[in-house]
Amino acid sequence: MLLFWTAAALLSAAAAALVLWRARGAAEPAAEEPELAVYRRHLAEQDELKARGLLDEEAWKAARAEAGRRLLAAAGPAPETPAGDPRKLGLAVLGSVLAAAALGAGIYAAVGSPGAPDMPYARRLAAWKDADPSRLGPAEMAAVLTDLAREQPQSGEVWGFLGRARAAAGDAFGAAQALEKAVALRPTNADDWSALGEVLVQLNDGKLSPDADRAFARALAIDPNNPGPRYARGRAALAEGRKDAGLKLWREALALLPAEDPRRAALVAEIAAAEGAAPQASPEDAAIRAMVEGLAARLETAPDDPEGWARLVRAYTVLGDVPARDRALTKARELFRDRPTDLAAIEAAARPTQPQ
Hints:
The chain is mainly alpha-helical. Helix content is 72%, strand content 0%. Among the domains are: 2-43 and 56-69 and 86-111, no CATH class; 294-356, no CATH class. The radius of gyration is 24 Å and the shape is globular.
């Protein structure tokens, strides 16, 4: 371990010397564009997932390459800035390097376990594949689906599920990569295009980027009655302060939802909240509840229906019936514990999302 810290110190010193050399006569750095900060944050997220053992070497390299590509695309030529004092800049850089090295050594000494052997990623993955899927977190489920995607690289369905699992795990770049493969393999799937657009909006800090808008447009070209793209565009408009445009899109999405769709109640509440009004009780509530109970009764007699279980869990989630949702999840986890792809879709339905 002493050898490790010696090598780390030498590398830090070499890096500091390089930075100091480049800093001679350099200008004070301009404030970084917000878009660049977003991509740098997502680069750090890839490193964190790998450090936690939730991303293997190949997936980590691919994710960082994609993040780096987007970062370079977002970064334009550096503007001309007035020169600063190289001595002050050099001292600041050297001080930062030394402080970081000391802080890292202190943290490792306090909480590290230098004598504990690391569990190889392959062993962790094997354990997750053999485990009860209901006990896996979103990142672990994404790891299992990543392995499944390697086994079935031409399955658009697997890539679509993987994209949604990565999004749930907070890996927006990885989700975008998987969903881009999903739409390439099944380009007529409107829901995949809509999900891709949502992830691209997330990558753009909630704002509608040109790529996201194109994905939503493609989803609507395939299925003009899909409320998902309108909802997502409306949410982005509201985040940008365009209240009237956002509410208009949400009302269009609401009009496309069938009267018996349990998601209507959630969208009505969101529209009311955006308008600053209290949500009104809908006369359709009883009919919606009856439809949900009918679905639950059907699944009791014909349980081998993962899509039906996903709809049931989503319905309970939208209605806010947490006990019923948890009971349905428990039953589904028992039924599909050996089918991680199906279970991932059902688990995803338990998380509040926009209409699809």
